[in-house]
Structure formats: structure tokens, C-alpha cells
Amino acid sequence: MKFGKYLKQNIEPSIGVENYLDYETLKTIIKNLTAKQLAPLTNPSSRGVSLSMPPPTSLTGAPITDLQNGVDILTQESFFSLLDSELKKIEGFTGKKVESIRRGLRVVNESLKGEEVVSGLKEQVDGIGHDFLILEKYVNLNFTGFHKILKKHDKNLPNPCKAFYVARMHQQGWVRGDYSDIVVQLSSIYSSIRGDKSVKEKDSTSQAFMRSTTKYWVNTSDISKVKYAVLQHLPVFLQKTATGETDSQLTNSVYLDNSSLELYHGRLDKTPGAIAVRLRWYGNGLPETIFVERKTHRDSWTGEVSVKERFIVGEEEVKRIMRGEYDVEAEKKKMKEQGKTEEDIEEWLILVREITSAIDSKLLVPTMRTQYMRTAFQIPFDATVRVSLDTNLCMISERGYDLEGGKRWHRDPEKPIGAEEIARFPHAVLEIKLEVKEGSEVPKWVEELQNSGMLYEVHKFSKFIHGCATLLPEDVTSVPYWIDDISIRESIIASGASHILTKISEENTDEGEFGRSGAGPGANQMYPHLLPHGTSNQRGKGDVISARTSGQKFEGNPGDQVGAKFMNFGLNYDTDSDDNPSDSCWPSSCCVNYETAAPTSIQKVEPKVFFANERTFLHWLHMAVVVSGVASSILAFSKPGSFGEWFGIMLLPISLGFCTYALHTLHWRAERIRLRVPGRWDDPMGPTILSVVLIVVFSINFCFELYGIVEKDIRRAEGY
């Protein structure tokens, strides 16, 4: 769909078409200027002009017409002037709308000061929240429109201007404005309406809980919608800043590893007992209070759970830990003086000794830092549902500077970072942590959010793993499955790791946008252990995919289709979608398009899945043996030339078909399980076809037998 048509279809009536970007007029100006065949500037570096020199000729050498009183009435200045006025118009409207929303929130807060909640207040707040989301959609539509029209200008006219105007837009209030105060107020109001109360901290050691953590990518344009969906049920954990309260807090984590990236590969391969050690601090400025944390992986299918343990130290103590000079006994003495119990001290002592021993024995040094703004949603001391949203996520390499013998454990914030030492992640990362009693159901609103189409599940996504794979590509021997996702390609190329990406052909991209040079042979070709099971040699020649298929027809709830939006950040313009012939293809590896990069998804695979596939194969073989046995028996006892003989002959190829289908499905499904291909792993077509064939054969047999009985009765009645 062309963007101009898309814009018209998505204009909000309450805002009015006059407040949107005048895309069609700008497009018309470009079209008319293109018809003039304007020539580029002959000498852009010249610092002199002549007031008596005629206008330059066109590309064909002909004088430019369409003059009025000696002045060209349509020039590129006409385009720039209208563009400037449109930018000013949208910025003004956005500012007025934000102020209107803030006034509405102040009125609601005044109503909440009474002892009783005014009736109809929730509907009023819902309306304000809805207006805020409409405003964000308005901003996104116009922002995309400016990008599109500037791209069209640079494509058709000789003097490019997109880079200048895009940089200018990013400095304007309607694009870079932080309206998190609206989110904070909405959260506070909803919390008051719900009557949230902090629950007492409970000892859950004697209770059985089902704990689960799921991570999602969230498109930038959906961040406010996701925040609004969550804050209607959970309050925002507010952060104190110099300018007041905000909904997010800067979080830094320095991950430790050695020269061979032992911890990285252990976490990537999900080796039982694999650890990650990090130093985390919160807030702006230099770190003062640091959390030394250790995460230990456990396979959930074994009945164990992964754990995170930590202890708190000061900045100077981190230096002593890195140098191996941390005085455990002195700290133990301080804890006793503070009145800590022997049990707490012993647990602390074991953890500290294990972490310091790992740092010393594995030669761990600062390797990777993650930095993001975290928004947390949780009722205090209630761990039933916890939600965190990380935005402005970037990974920074902690290699390449002098550690000064352990005196320095993070980069000097005053020194600039090279382009290949930082990777800026294009999406926000949402994490939902559930702690539900066994037998209880997941809250309905959580399921609705998961199926809303705004979340894109990325199983076991890790910021540490992603950072190492993209910033230290020469040191890793394998990379995570999500690396080849097309929505993060630009960020990986910008960080200098383009050679690990799958090569995308020009014909499979929109105007070759991602098919540029710099996209290498692909991670699966470079690293044989990329896929969860097997190696690239086992997959066969040309079988280069990243646990995904192209042209996959997703079925089910909208949440299953959300990955497709990341292809073009949720908007699909200037392309016409045709039916994919592979949608109607019978399940086979031939249906996989290995050249087109599609959004990555992942299926969780446990060992029992492989055994279930084999059991299904044996069940089909059993049915084939039964059918062939029946056919053989019929043939053995039937008279030559009778219908029974023909019936047995018809059953034999059917039994052979069952065997062939069972073998084909076994290998087809095993391949999808091994590659963790997204979508369905069952085949609704094959069993239906075989069942229909059996029904037809049995129906024919029934009809002939019925005909024979009726014919005998007729003959008996006639005295034959």
C-alpha cells in the first residue's frame, strides 16, 4: 500500500486532516520539479553569486520555463518552505495536545483528593489514556511521512536534503520530547482507583510456586501502548531524579569474562551450571553502590530453576575484588557488629568466596557493559506479576583500555566511544516474570497483553550474549539465533559486525534496502554451532537459515503474527503483497525459502519432543501394518476375479501410502524441531487425505456388498 493512501486511511477524525502532514502537496511539488529536470549545482563551493545572471538550464540544456515576471514560481525553495511550515504545524499541535492531556490529569488528581472515588472517574482516565495513545500514533504517522517524502525528494531531485531534515526533526520537541510524567500520573491515578496496597513480605519457602520469565521485543512505536496496558493493572515503580519523579532509571551492568569468552559460550549453549557474573549499579553519575551478581543456569525440564544471587559492595571494594584483595574476614566482622544472623553471614560468605574464586581461577575481566533505561511495574512485595521494560538499550565493549592492574573496571565516561565499540539496540525489551501458585491461572490481562500483537517473543534473549556476538565477533565461535533477524540488521552493521549476517538478495528486499554490501555469508555459515541441534554440514548444501522460514503462514491469535511487523517497523508501504505459493505446499523442506530473511521466532524444545515424534511415527507404522494385514487376509481368502480380491488390492497401496507418509513426516518434523522453526509442527493435511482415501475405499466396498445382498434377495424372491 502506498503511504499516501495509508495516511488517509489512518487519519484520526478527532484530530482532523488539516493537522496532519500535507503529504500529497509535497509529493506534487516533487513531481512537478522532477518534470523540469533540474540540474545539480555546478559549483557548490562557490562563494559568489550574480543578480543579473539568468537561471541555469535543465539537464537537457534547455532553459527552464514556468517563469512569472522573470522569477521561477516553482523551485526547490517551494518544497523547503512548505516542509518547514509543516514541521512547525505538527510541533505546535503536539504541544497543545500534550498540555490538554496534562490539564485533564490535573483535574482527575483534584477529584481523587476526596475520601471517595468519584463515579465515572475510571472512564475519564481511560479517555485521557486513549487520547495519549492517539497522539503518539499521530506523531508516528507524521514522522514516517517526513521520512518518506524526504526519501522521495532525494531520489528524484539533484540536491539531497534528507540527512539535514532528519537530524533537525530529532532535535524538535514533538520527536524528542519526554512525556513520561504523563505515564507517571496515569499510573498513580489507576493505582488509587484500584486501591493498591503493599502486601507484607512473605516467606514462600513452604509454598509451591510456578515461576516463569518471558522476554519480548517491543517496537519503538508501541512502547507507550505497552506501558499504558501494564499500568492499568500494575503501578509504576517511581524513580527520584533532580527534576522530580520519572518512570525509568538508568541501569548499567558490567559483565565479566575471560579472553576465550568462556562464560559467554556457556550461557549461549545453555550448559547446566553455566554462570554469568556482572557488576550492576543504578542511576546517573559514577557508581557508588554496586551489586555483584551471579546468575546460574539450570534446565527447567529437569525440575531445577535458574537462580540469581548477589551481594552489595562499594566502588573501592570492587577494585579489591578484581585484584583478588577483598578482605572477607573484615567484612564478616562488620556484619556481626551490625547484628546479622549466623545463617545470613554463612550464606553471604559462601557466595562471596564462590564469586571471587571464579574471578580468580577463570581470569575474569570486564568484557561487556549493557546500559538502558528501565521502567519497572510491580506492587511492592507482591511477586505474582512483575514487568520490566528496558528502553534506549545499548551494549558497550569493555575491552581496549588499560585496567590499571584492577584499579579500573569500567570505561572512563569522559572518553569517547568508537562506533565499533557500541551497539545500539533498535527495540525495547519487555520482561514478564510470573510467580503463580500451582493450579492457578495466569492473570487474564497478561494473556491479553501477550496476544495483543505488540510483543514479539524472543526465547532466552540475553543482552550480554547479544553484545558479545555483535561487538566481539572475532572472539566468538557461535552466535545466538536472533542475530539474523532483519529488524536488527542495521544496528549490527553500524557496530561493524556485518560479516556475521545472512546475505539477503536484492529482489527479496524493498528497493534493496538491506541487500547492500556488508551483509556477509551469514552467521549460520560462519559458525557451525549456531543452530540448537546439529551442524551446518549435517543440514546440507545451501541450507542456510536461522531457525525460521520465509512465507510461513501464521495462524492463531494476533500475537503469533507480531514478528512480521518488525520487517518495516510496523508499516508496510510501496509494496504489494502477493500470495506465497509455499502457503499451499505440502509439509516439506522444499517449502522453506532459504534466501529471504524473515523475522526470527523460536520454539521451546525439550527432549521429550523428539521422542513424541518417534512415537507418532510408530503409531502410523502400526496402522499401516494393520491395513496391510487386512488386505493380505482378504486376498488370501478371496476367490480369483471376485470383488474381494479387488478390495484387497486397493488396500495394499493405501498401507504403503501410510508407511511413506509416516517416514516423510518423521524427517520433516524432526528437521523443524532441530531448527526450531516457528509455526505449526503438526500436519493437518496428510491425515485428512489418508482418512478420505480410506473412507472412499470402505464406502465402495460397502456399496458393492450392499448391492450384492440386494441382488441376492431379488433373485431369491424371483425364484432363482
TrEMBL record:
Which BP terms in the Gene Ontology apply to this protein? polyphosphate biosynthetic process
Any GO CC annotation of this UniProt entry: vacuolar membrane
PROSITE patterns found in the cross-reference section? SPX
Q: What is its main location?
A: membrane
Q: Name its cellular compartments.
A: Vacuole membrane
Keyword Transport belongs to the record = no
Q: Which InterPro entries does the entry mention?
A: DUF202 (IPR003807), SPX_dom (IPR004331), VTC_Complex_Subunit (IPR051572), VTC_domain (IPR018966), VTC_sf (IPR042267)
Note the topology in the membrane. Multi-pass membrane protein
Q: Which UniProt keywords apply?
A: Membrane, Transmembrane, Transmembrane helix, Vacuole
Transmembrane segments in this chain: where? 617-637, 649-668, 688-710
Q: Which domain of life is it from?
A: Eukaryota
Q: Does the keyword Membrane apply?
A: yes
Q: Which residues form the SPX domain?
A: 1-167
PANTHER family membership: VACUOLAR TRANSPORTER CHAPERONE 1-RELATED, VACUOLAR TRANSPORTER CHAPERONE COMPLEX SUBUNIT 4-RELATED
What is this protein's record name? SPX domain-containing protein
| Organism name | Triparma verrucosa
